[in-house]
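Entry 14. Ran structure prediction on the chain below.
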Amino acid sequence: MRKTMVETDHPQLSTRKQCELLGVNRNRLRPKCPRPWQPRTEHKEMLALIPLIHAKDPTMGARQLGIVLGRNDYHASRWTTGKMMEHLGIKAIYCSLCTTQAAPENPKYPYFLRNRQITKAHEVWAIDITYIPWSRGHVYLAAIIDWKTRAVLAWRVNNTMDVDFCLDVLCEAIGVAGAVPEIINTDQGSQFTGVEWISAVEDLGARVSMDGKGRWMDNVLIERLWRSVKHEWVLLHEYNTIPELEVLLGEWIERYNTWRPHTANGGETPWQAYRGLLSKLEREEVKGGPSNC
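Output, structure tokens:
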């Protein structure tokens, strides 16, 4: 209220004197409209370097870009690096589309995995949906993993998120595993709270478990899988059709299941932990790694 009493064009009292008399900090009279950021001379070389770093790894944000600039003897804070990225029109690639669309009228089930010790395969399966960017928008990827071994049992790509898409993945996983899990965990998306999904899971004899509202950490293992498949593979390759994307995903998931060691499995691959020890020949192939390494 006192700020409104200050007259910047008063004929006798300066603005400073008026503020002193009213007990108002003069800095608070400044309008809240920050000046647009303008690059300085010392930013010129960094502005030329940032697009090159971004082209090499488009997933880097301002923090990581600032670290890489520091390695090249350019010193810029995270804030300055972010302003330079904004000035160049560069943004980090990251997951932003929400695929969990709740249906308030559908029933919700409790989360059964909190503080539970998972000790064997087929004890818990987790299923989730993520989006994959495409030149024509985006498509959806659904997958089921075994919670204990982290093995991807089934996956599928589709251009919609309907429940039939999820049921197809479930049926495929049962065919691959030859067994039904004790618990199947999902989020609270409408695909997993509807009658069709709940009935299908219960008819199999499995228990339905659901993440808490907004609790992505409750299904963190498959969320971590999404980060890996996108940042390590999909976003670094080019594809123009869904069949091309399916081939690309198949290559990475095969590599993940059968070649890539996993710390949660004591260094074994998910498929080794899931199916037991490999034959001697397969073990030698895994030790050598893929031909393109």
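The chain has three domains: 1-31, 48-88, 124-288. Will compare against last week's run tomorrow.
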